[in-house]
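User:
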Amino acid sequence: MALTKMNDNPSRKTSSAVARCRVAALMLAVIAIAFALREHWGHIFGLSPYLLLLACPLMHLFMHHGHHKHGDSDHDQPEHRMPMNSHK
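Assistant: Predicted structure:
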C-alpha cells in the first residue's frame, strides 16, 4: 500500500485556490467601493435629503405588510388580546 501525502489531493488544491480568488475579489471590491465613495462623497450628501424623503414611503410600504385590513372582525377575538393579569 503506497503512502500518499495529504497535500497531493487535487480537490484540496482547487478549493484553496477558489478561496484565495474569492478573498482577492472581495478585497478588490472593497477598494473599488472606497475609491468610488471618496470621489463621489459630495454627490451622495447632495442626494441625502431626497433619499430620506424616499425612505419614508418605502418604510411604510414594506414595514406595514403584517397589518390586517382595517375593519376586520379578527381584532375583536379574545385570542388576539393579552391577558390583563399576566405578571407573576
